[in-house]
Amino acid sequence: MSSDPPQVAIACQGGGSHTAFTAGVLARLLEDGALERDVDIVGFSGTSGGAVCASLAWYGREHPDHEPDELLADYWSEMAARGPVERVTNEAVRWGSRLERMGVPLPDVSPYRSPAALWGRREFLELLERHIDFDAMPDLLDGTNPALLVSAIDVLSGEFRLFREDELSPEAILASAAIPYVFRAVEINGAHYWDGLFSKNPPVKDFVTNRETPDPDEIWIVKINPQRRNRVPKSPDGIADRRNELSGNKSLNGEVSFIEHVNDWVEKGYLPEKFTHTEIERIRFRRPDLGWRTKLDRSPAFIEGLFADGEDAAEAFLADRHAAGDEDV
After folding, report:
1. What is the DSSP track for 290-321?
2. Taking the chain (329 residues) in consecutive chunks of 10 residues, what is each chunk's mean pLDDT?
3. Which pick of 78, 166, 211, 247 has the fewest CB atoms within 10 Å?
């Protein structure tokens, strides 16, 4: 039996403001580098808000002047609507959502004609650039870095696109987070991209099929959308919530199913030796009381609470993992 630490990839599902939970998970996992004494982190992936968290974690881990836990905490602290303009905007989004829920007709405004959409795009990009020095990225790439996979979808071709660590840019991350009714499609090298939620949420299968990256022993999925519900939703809100959850899980379930099939073929000896068994672990967001509309809520108390929930979930995950390891000894 190999004494080498298991190779682990961490995949971050998208979910708007709910991915402050993901930030808390990653901050705890990567705090003080303690985790990396037990595992070898070979990759991060993410979509939408998960792409932001994965990129910050990757950058904070690789840059000698930053720590990933501090970078994640600082980013989400700034993301919270603290200033007067941000608070007014956040409240307008929340009230608009409530009015829509009550059936009050609201005007549809294209993001191509909305000053608010342009302002949101600028704020998103500037916030990223305050926390990631994209000009320094080439100097961080020494061939030993973990993979970074950020998912978006090409609006015209309908094909998914993975941006890798050597292609990381503010626009690539925005492409993964560009909700069609909030942002204009993001143009990169002549192609136009929307939110990666339509393609891979998050990239998982690529850790196994991409031969440029190590085949991980384990993939830890930070999962935002619940898989199961106890009762059939009947209210308009409940139906919308469940539809959002099912849509967000569709691609993930397909990719996990693929890996499970590969595991089965490996165990039966159908595949070459370069294919290995990959264990799937999940760190779940456990707030069933929150509907999909709260994914747009950036109030400070809400963001801070989700971040703390993520830290607690990661702590419990690590405790369970250590306990299971002790039982195997």
Report:
1. --GGGGG---HHHHHHHHHHHHHHHHHHHHHH
2. 82 93 97 85 95 96 95 93 45 40 52 80 92 94 93 93 94 92 91 85 90 86 90 84 83 92 92 86 89 83 95 95 67
3. 211
